[in-house]
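Action item from last week, closing it out:
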Amino acid sequence: MKKLFPILLVLLLVLSAATVTAKGQQEGAQGEQQAQEAAEPAVDVTELAKDYFDEYPQGGYIIKEEMLLEKLQNGEDMFVIDIRQPDAYAEAHVTGAVNMPWGPDFAQYLASIPQSGQVYLYCYSGQTAGQTVALLNLAGIPVKSVRYGFNYGFSKVEGADEFIDTTEVAVPSANNEIAPAVQETVDAYYKEFEELAGTPFANNIISSENAKKILDAEDDSVQFVDIRRKEDYDQGHIETAVNIPYGADMHEMFGSLPADKKLIVNCYSGQTAGQTVAILKVIGYDAASLKGGMGTPKNEPMGWVTEGYPVVQ
């Protein structure tokens, strides 16, 4: 027994030292993690949303359909995204375009989209592309939408047929880093579509017909917002609509909007309204864009005026 005592004492000392070492390593790892978190401040998604207008690029967030064709003709290096549904993409799309269908699961594609270079995106008419462009730029992806989309824009340009085909292009691997807070925000944005399905505000878009019903009902829970230029607003706008012209620093006027009401936003064709709606929703407002906006010759038969609904001055 006397011989065993020194051995037991040595074992106890070894175990004690190992415990102290393990505890020290654990505390060291926790300290290192805390230091790293302190060095990398949390991403403020609301501030990123405001930056969308603070950092408004020259020419805005839309590329004209003719300009996209010119870039294709010149063989410029670019990444093109088609967010229409797979059946529409399979029927015809811009040569080289990757299909990332708009819907509740769209956020899964964020890490697969280049974070530099020329990135362009289109939908059918430009309206859902507008929402997506705002969210992708918020995620650090410098993308612009194609004016009037594929159906009303690019496919109508003379010479575009040369750059329209049916060859499927694979989605790239997810190699880019997206800040967790941004990923969660974008994911939640698209997941909400499941709740909106079947309502007048599906896809954060409302038809002129349903908007007119709300107007006629004098629904006090809704505020119409016109983001066209003031001179166009003055010539004729939806009754009760307030004017906040689209463009750089427009977010500075968002504080004048009622936070407790549903906002119905209109522009000319729905494209910049789509962008505005996405940013409004990210910073806490409840908003939807008017389908087709007020209407233009290029996006007929959509649009409030095109469909024959009244305006006031």
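Closing note: The two ends are 105 Å apart (CA to CA).
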